[in-house]
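Long-time lurker. I teach an intro course on protein structure, and each term I like to show students one example going from raw sequence to a predicted 3D structure in token notation. This year I'd like something fresh instead of my usual example. Would anyone be willing to generate the tokens for the chain below so I can use it in lecture? Attribution to the forum is fine with me.
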Amino acid sequence: MRWTLPNILTLARICLTPVIALLPFIEGYWPKVIAFLIFLAAAASDLVDGYLARRRNEVSELGQLLDPVADKLLLFATLIPIFWLTRHPTILYGIPWWGSLPVWVALLLVGRELLITAFRFLAKRRGVVIPAAGAGKLKAVVQNVFIGATIAWFAWRDAWLRHGWTGRLEEAWNKFHGWFVAVTLAGAIFLTVYSLIVYLYRYRAVLKGGG
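-- Reply from a regular --
Happy to contribute to a lecture. Here you go:
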């Protein structure tokens, strides 16, 4: 087993995932700010580790195994605080228009990842390698923007209520930030469904038993 720099970065992302998931539950806005910053670092490492692996000619089976695992763990773990905090009984963490994160949305985001993973496994057994498509990459970007913006939204709401900000600038940002989260969530949902359809249609021969 060869521990290269890209693999170490991927492993670090896996180790940071529970920290990102737990920090938003701590009272106050600073833990959420820290969670947001760590999430940014984790999301950036997802881009950096792949680039380094190709640039340094260090693509390995271990890295190919760890990278998708790290991505899915980060998604699943960050959905936990988003799901629960948007249902907070006293602090209004709810997302404009959406309110709390709907159960069906959480199931859709998680289910899509599990389905694509199973589909890739089936395809590989039949000698077909399914690379990341453009729609899938865009989905990942928008999804990460939504998650990061939502964690920042939690921090903002805590700070806004804690300091009692009532100025026009604060009110304007409150509306902008909230609706930005709402729009990116809608985009993530659309791209989740669209990218799934793209993969299944493009490699439909796999489902028929062909290559």
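Some talking points for your students: Residues 128 and 211 are 6 Å apart (CA to CA). The mean pLDDT is 88.
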